[in-house]
Amino acid sequence: MKMNDAFLASMREAMHLLQTAGPMEATEAIQRALRQQSPTSAAVAPAAPMPAQVVERLLTHAQAPARTVDVVSDVPETIPATSRSTRALRPDSTGASPHKAGHFSQRTFVNQAGSRSYKLYLPAGQRAEPMPLVVMLHGCTQDADDFAAGTQMNALADKLGFVVLYPIQAAENNPSKCWNWFRPGDQQAGKGEPSIIAGMAREVIASHGIDARRVYVAGLSAGGAMAAVLIQGYPELFAAAGVHSGLPAGSAHDLPSALGAMQGGKGIGRSKPDAMPSTTPRRPMIVFHGDADHTVHPLNGSRLVAPFEKGQARREKERKKVAAGHDYTRLSITTPAGVDAEYWTIHGAGHAWAGGNRQGTYTDPKGPDASAEMLRFFLAHPLPG
Fold first, then answer.
1. 377 with 240: CB under 8 angstroms?
2. DSSP element (H, E) containing 345
3. 234 CB burial (10 A radius; 0-12, 13-18, 19+)
4. Residue 14 pLDDT more than 60?
5. CATH classification of 81-379, choosing from 1.10.3570.10, 3.50.50.60, 2.40.240.10, 3.40.50.1820?
6. How many C-beta atoms surround the C-beta of residue 10 within 10 A?
7. Distance between terminal CA atoms of the chain?
8. Alpha-carbon gap, residue 93 to 95, rounded angstroms
9. CB-based contacts of 99, cutoff 8 Å, min separation 6
10. What pLDDT, on the 0 to 100 scale, is given for residue 116?
11. Domain coordinates of the chain in residue numbers?
């Protein structure tokens, strides 16, 4: 058997292990294959199809519950899909009537870097003042409806009065619908997916009279990693970022180094996350990470806030016990330049959105409520001036 054939066979084995045994066993199979493969082999290049599928699938937990496609199954198809979606997202405890829900619509954005669809949620009710905008980046295998259902961000938008933008990654751009945070061409302002997402945000700002000082970006897993890329590349556009179970910008440059970063930097690929370039934070960031996350190592949460801790002007740490949820430790930091960060370590939590709703995938209802805490943090940090 040729070297390349052997590598592909190992990748197929890893895919089988991912589906039957779990991500850790699949990771070990990939590591074995990479150790046996020549560093110059084309099979480990970023364009190799089988490794790409394996690594991208590993960016979210392989055993997440299946999403219910039609949450409100008794709604006739003659009612627009936007109405069905927003009814499903509103918590039952609100007692709100369906006609008071906001408007959820889908559009497509195109620029020189390519095109992506997105869904836009406009909250119920009239507002005299320009509203904030929150850009929500889903994780692998998810879509806008799934992520909205899991995070309940639309219900918060109705309550607090802000617009929510959900960019959608297509399968033709990534087999598992992951944002390509690990590709050099998708890690810089003005290029690739960062350019497309920023362009979407600017389009919505212009067309809906958004308060340009209050535009925020948040994401889960691969979406969280892309949120870290965007806040670093577009500090003039995004006022703050929320990263849940994600990775720092620049922590990988290809598929092998992405897998190494996800597993805490344990020796595969050419990059070393501990040695990755560190930039001075220009915008606030709130980070959530479960300390039992076996998909994206919790060390990545620490690395996200490490640049804020260099010569910090303020550092406060507290641990909270939660009777009906996960205990957590919250670290609050302020840099000498006055840039704030919060790092929530959720004890006993895995790779899932904290406080999320089980209507969506990759959620942990126990909390703390990441959506509510992100909004608190965001709205307290508009762009200066």
1. yes
2. strand 340-346
3. buried
4. no
5. 3.40.50.1820
6. 22
7. 64
8. 6
9. none
10. 98
11. 3-44, 81-379
Q: Which two tokens stand for residue 103?
A: 């408007």
Nearest to 342 by CA among 291, 376, 294: 376
Helix and strand numbers (H, E) in the chain are: 11, 12
From residue 302, alpha-carbon distances to 140, 238, 298, 371 in Å are 22, 22, 7, 20
Phi, psi of 119 (to 5 degrees): -115, 145
The Cα 380–Cα 375 span in angstroms is: 8
- Stretch (H or E) spanning 34: helix 23-36
Query: How confident is residue 68, by pLDDT bands cut at 50, 70 and 90?
Result: very low
CA distance 134 to 122: 11
The answer to whether the peptide bond before residue 368 is cis (omega within 30 degrees of 0) is: yes
**Strands of 86-138, DSSP E:** 103-111, 114-122, 133-137
Cα gap 374→198, rounded to integer Å: 20
Is the model's pLDDT at 249 over the cut of 80?
A: yes
* Amino acid type, 114: G
Average of per-residue pLDDT across 281-287: 97
* pLDDT value at residue 126: 77
Which amino acid belongs to residue 223?
G
* Residue 215 half-sphere exposure toward CB, CA atoms < 13 A: 25
**Model pTM?**
0.76
Q: Which of 249, 242, 331, 327 is nearest to 292 (CA)?
A: 327
Residue reference for tokens 């007692």: 95
DSSP three-state, residue 97: coil
**Phi/psi zone of residue 160: left (φ > 0), alpha (ψ -120 to 50 degrees), beta?**
alpha
Displacement of CA 251 from its chain's centroid (Å): 15
Q: How far apart are alpha carbons 88 and 360 in whole angstroms?
A: 11
User: At how many degrees (to 10) do helices 81-89 and 144-151 cross?
Assistant: 30
Please tell me the distance from the alpha carbon of residue 63 to that of residue 25, in angstroms, as a whole number.
Answer: 13
| Angle at the Cα of 44 from the Cα atoms of 39 and 50, rounded to 5 degrees | 155
